[in-house]
Design a protein that fits this description.
Blueprint (H helix, E strand, L loop, with lengths): L6 E7 L7 H11 L5 E7 L6 H7 L3 E6 L13 E2 L1 H6 L4 E4 L5 E4 L2 H9 L9 E5 L3 H13 L2 E6 L6 E3 L5 H6 L2 E4 L25 E4 L8 H8 L3 E3 L2 H15 L2
Length: 249
């Protein structure tokens, strides 16, 4: 007789074959003998398909949310945690006992925990590459750490500079460069944000939210100039454990 799965979790995103979340939780369930739990990828092309997932999955207890739905999913939720509302992006959804959907952000927590041990005296200001949902959690964490930041976008807009405005002076002023864009994610491993990499030094941190591949072109190029580098794997693990806590409290 097959074991009936009583608790179902999953990842909501688009073209998410690259993600380690399913593997991470499947291993966790196996190692901790959580035989009544399963984790699936909900790979949808449009956020409008989200309602169908909820309808068809009465055993769903929680979801992680990844690119490109961290902001788009918000109108489909019943409520948000205080921090998720402040951040304006959701990467964790809890299905409450009453069947309501509550959105949380554990990205900011995961990012903060991963970055903190790297920080030194000179790390006062950060450039955040990308302006999507992931960048919002990063910005919130930087605020909590007392680090000033500027967003970088493909086109200059009200709250962001564009890549063409980055030069030697920028690198002298900003000692932390964070890639929160999907540029360089598997399978597009040859892509990288268009930065003047020659201005990286051993005083800089290059942090990439991407963890597949483990070393993106962005990290490789920064490392060649002596920068401290880190990928998004620790962040993924910290935020996943935080999500697990939320789903089960």
């Amino acid at each position: 007789m097959t074991e009936i799965v009583k608790k179902r979790y999953g990842l909501l995103g688009k073209n998410i074959g690259y993600s380690f979340s399913k593997g991470y939780f499947t291993d966790k369930f196996s190692n901790e003998n959580l035989d009544d739990c399963s984790y699936d990828n909900f790979d949808i092309q449009e956020i409008t398909e989200f309602n169908q997932i909820i309808k068809k999955s009465p055993d769903l207890k929680g979801l992680n949310v990844t690119i490109p739905y961290k902001e788009a999913v918000i109108p489909f939720l019943d409520r948000l945690s205080k921090k998720a509302a402040k951040i304006g992006a959701v990467n964790t959804i809890k299905v409450t006992k009453k069947g309501k959907l509550k959105g949380y952000n554990t990205d900011y927590y995961g990012f903060k925990k991963a970055l903190e041990p790297m920080l030194q005296v000179q790390h006062k200001k950060a450039l955040v590459l990308g302006t999507g949902g992931a960048s919002k959690g990063v910005a919130f964490a930087l605020e909590e750490l007392g680090i000033l930041y500027t967003f970088v976008s493909r086109e200059a807009k009200e709250n962001a500079i564009d890549y063409s405005q980055i030069n030697a002076t920028t690198f002298a002023n900003y000692q932390i460069i964070i890639n929160s864009s999907p540029v360089g994610t598997s399978p597009n491993v040859d892509a990288f944000p268009l930065l003047p990499y020659e201005y990286f030094t051993d005083q800089h941190i290059a942090f990439d939210l991407i963890y597949n591949p483990a070393e993106t072109q962005f990290l490789k190029k920064a490392k060649e100039k002596g920068a401290q580098i880190k990928n998004g794997l620790d962040m993924l693990i910290f935020q996943a454990e935080k999500a697990w806590e939320i789903w089960n409290k």
